[in-house]
Input
Amino acid sequence: MHWRISIVGVLALFVAVSCNQQPVGPLSPVSGDQPLLDQGGVPSDGHGNKFVFTSVGSFPVDCGSEDITGHFDGWGQGHVFGPPNNRHVELGVFHFVFTYTNADGDEFVWRDVGPDLQYEVDGVLFVAITGRSTASGDAGRNNVVLGHVVIRDPFGTPDVVFVAGKDLGPLDDLACDALT
Output
């Protein structure tokens, strides 16, 4: 299926390449000092019916007067649906923890969790993001939305066609506000 490198793969790319976002409250601390993946929190592959990826990394954040460090740790799981005539292409489930730290050791933690549904309408791909989204706005991880966002053509020219919920703005801005 040509959508196999789907929204789950694209989210991994956004996380790895454009981690220039800041976390937003309310905060949910990671258990103890262990990274999420070290806690055994990766889902099953559903006996080969689902694909799973993990991603861990760090990135600098320029807050103007001060630099802080961002770190992400988490996983995504995708279930690709069967044969033609099924407009639901893929269901993706995500759990990423973004931890921002300033020079004093203060932390700001944001969890990006929730399901994403990819579907086609008249040959056009859409993704419906539900929950705590950091891939809203222009689909380039520039805005955090608590709610529901629908993006048309997420792999081409992303166009947000629906937003319901609370738009908190860029994640990096939220982290900078909390830590500087």
